[in-house]
Amino acid sequence: SQKMVKICCIGAGYVGGPTMAVIALKCPAIEVVVVDISKPRIDAWNSDQLPIYEPGLDEVVKECRGRNLFFSTDVEKHVAEADIIFVSVNTPTKTRGLGAGKAADLTYWESAARMIADVSKSDKIVVEKSTVPVKTAEAIEKILTHNSKGINYQILSNPEFLAEGTAIKDLFKPDRVLIGGRETPEGKKAVQALKEEVYAHWVPEDRIITTNLWSAELSKLAANAFLAQRISSVNAISALCEATGANVSEVAYAVGKDTRIGPKFLNASVGFGGSCFQKDILNLVYICECNGLPEVANYWKQVIKINDYQKSRFVNRVVSSMFNTVSGKKIAILGFAFKKDTGDTRETPAIDVCHGLLGDKAQISIYDPQVTEDQIQRDLSMGKFDWDHPRHLQPTSPTAFKQVSVVWDAYEATKGAHGLCILTEWDEFKTLDYQRIFDNMQKPAFVFDGRNVVDPEKLREIGFIVYSIGKPLDAWLKDMPAVA
Ligand code: NAI
Question: What homologous superfamily does CATH list for 225-479?
Answer without folding.
Answer: NAD(P)-binding Rossmann-like Domain (3.40.50.720)
